[in-house]
Amino acid sequence: MKVIYDPKEDVVSIILKMAPIAESNEGKPGIIMDYDRDGNLIGLDILEASMRIGNPRSLEYAIRA
């Protein structure tokens, strides 16, 4: 998994799997979901991230035991 914040475009991209994007759709306003050819979710983009996320430049990663 990879998380990228583009401050110029104010977009957070979350890449779940490196695969060609076969289809994208806007599930909710400002949230674009990307799917592979089998219909599996492989990534999503959060538009206007600074308005939707407390601090898009900050990332916390945790694993629940």
Sheet having the most strands: 5 strands, antiparallel
Question: In percent, how helical is the residue content?
Answer: under 10%
- Derived structural class: mainly beta
What coarse outline follows from CA principal-axis ratios?
globular
Question: Which assembly state applies to the chains in this document?
Answer: single chain
Element-by-element helix/strand order: EEEEEH
Alpha carbon gap, first and last residue: 19 Å
Domain module tally:
1
How do the strands line up in the largest sheet? 1-2-5-4-3
Mean pLDDT: 95
What ranges have pLDDT less than 50 throughout 5 or more consecutive residues? none
Number of strand segments: 5
Tally of helical runs: 1
Strand content: 35-45%
Radius of gyration: 13 Å
Strand and helix layout:
Layout: E1 2-6, E2 11-15, E3 23-28, E4 31-35, E5 41-46, H1 49-52
Antiparallel strand pairs: 1-2, 2-5, 3-4, 4-5
Brief characterization of the structure:
By secondary structure, this protein is mainly beta. The chain has one helix and five strands, in the order βββββα.
